[in-house]
TrEMBL record:
EC category name: isomerase
Species this protein is from: Cohnella cellulosilytica
Enzyme Commission number(s) of this protein: 5.3.1.27
Keywords for this protein: Isomerase
Family: Belongs to the SIS family. PHI subfamily.
InterPro entries: PHI/rmpB, SIS_dom, SIS_dom_sf
The keyword Isomerase is assigned to this record: yes
Protein name, UniProt field: 6-phospho-3-hexuloisomerase
Domain SIS, chain residue ranges per copy: 29-172
Length: 185
């Protein structure tokens, strides 16, 4: 199969994945973000990269959004939300973050393949995304892509869709958001 055919198959996989996302779960995530004072985003590996892109767009939308682990990230408090993107829901570095956020009175939202996971069980809001974790990908799941690529791609598309919903709820457009874009580049 050539590269273009692989790309076409990836798009088909993404279409099937997006169609399986529950509207009510997505709406609940947008709502918890909008009523939070600060939004913290975390994830490991490629899921973490998708989270960084999400935090940037939330900042462009005028929200106080932060990436966990950055030197300029403030502390989390009651009234805040921690959003964790994790395929397995068992990433060892992310579980203590969820536990700490809960202990400080913050809400936890999980975007995961595995709602029954440790992080899924800790979550106040949960979005179940389809896909295969990096360990499952070789086990015959319906993806031609390696490891957790389908989850990570679906995660980015989902995060962008949440941003669009937040823009709609806040009456924002791209022109208004561009005013918050980095200008020291």
């Amino acid at each position: 199969m050539d590269t273009v055919k692989y790309a076409a198959e990836i798009v088909k996989e993404l279409q099937r994945s997006v169609e399986r996302i529950a509207d009510a779960q997505a709406e609940a995530l947008a709502d918890i973000i909008l009523r939070s004072d600060k939004v913290f985003v975390a994830g490991a590996g490629r899921s973490g990269l998708m989270g960084r892109a999400f935090a940037m767009r939330l900042m462009h939308a005028g929200l106080n959004a932060y990436v966990v682990g950055e030197t300029v990230t403030p502390g989390i408090d009651k009234g805040d939300v921690l959003i964790i993107g994790t395929g397995s829901g068992e990433t060892r570095s992310l579980i203590p973050m969820a536990q700490k956020a809960k202990s400080l009175g913050a809400a936890v939202a999980a975007v995961t393949i595995s709602p029954e996971s440790t992080i899924g069980q800790l979550a106040d809001a949960l979005v179940n995304l389809p896909g295969a974790t990096k360990d499952q990908a070789s086990g015959g799941h319906a993806t031609l892509q390696p490891m957790a690529s389908l989850f990570e791609q679906t995660l980015l598309i989902f995060y962008d869709a949440v941003v669009l919903r937040i823009m709609e709820k806040k009456g924002l457009d791209s022109d208004r958001m561009f005013g918050r874009h980095a200008n020291l580049e």
